[in-house]
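Quick question, first post here. What does this chain look like in 3D?
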Amino acid sequence: MTKINIPVSVLNLAPIREGDEPKEAIDAVVDLAQATEKMGYKRYWIAEHHNSSNLVSSATAILIKHVLEHTKEIAIGSGGIMLPNHSPLVVAEQFGTMATIYPGRVELGLGRAPGTDMMTASALRRSQNDSVFTFPNDVKSLLTYFGPEEIQSYVKAYPGVGTGVPIYILGSSTDSAHLAASLGLPYVFASHFAPRYMEAAIRIYREKFQPSQYLDKPYMIVCLNVIAAESDEEAEFLSSTMQQFFLNVVKNTQMKLQPPVESLNGNWSPMEREMASSMTSVTLLGSKDSIRQQLIKFQEHYDVEEIMAVSYIYDKVKQKRSYEILKEVVDGK
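> Answer (accepted):
Ran it through. Tokens below.
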């Protein structure tokens, strides 16, 4: 059987399921990390969102430390730290400390969006200036903070200096593709909610890539929604949880992660359905055979270096099985 020779990783937004409390959601983050580590996943990243009562991923660095503490080998990182909300020095100190405790296992994905609404962003922001525009310089500051002693300036991150925490640039448009390419850093595109610019972003990143001390050639990771099950019919049913999640986004409501339903008819207008469906248009969905064929087709077209999967599945056992099926597919089982 053909092996699709590509590493797979996990993104977790840390949603709270209907019927659960925040502590149970945090426990579920750890549980999924432990399960996917055993399956052989490459990395496990946790997102950053604020003022969202249905997510527990606001203090991302604390969650990362918690997961590091309860896993053994898998790399744990941020998908991502939203730099407009943070001082680069504080981020360097936090991640440098974790890298000192857990050497070789800490990763830092960086985004330029605030990960929340504008009022919350204002409450979070470290200055009154629009720090979105300082993103390229903030990334360069972090590369310096994690670098060797000889490139440091007066202000240093202790711990942090010399830890070489790997940095990844995250993007949902083409802007960050240019930055990742110019700095010679790996690039992660958010096709799990913003697939519209995926093809253009991949092309720009590869065409503009400048080799660096960090990478000699482009390393493209694409984040996809994955709903894998024993049959296409079951996967379709389970995917209604994901559809409800994105309907939440469209309506700007904050319902917890909902159980699957037979039909969403009556729950969304044609326009809402269209908007939610456009956000999930790049999704691997179905049985193992269907997932395999979809992934082969995706790779024939894009040939990315790594897939990062996010699975909005209500049943925790079925969510783990979804990740297991994806891993079996890439391993040719």
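Strands lie at 8-12, 43-46, 75-82, 106-111, 167-171, 187-189, 220-228, 283-286, 306-310.
The domain at 8-228+283-330 is CATH 3.20.20.30 (TIM Barrel).
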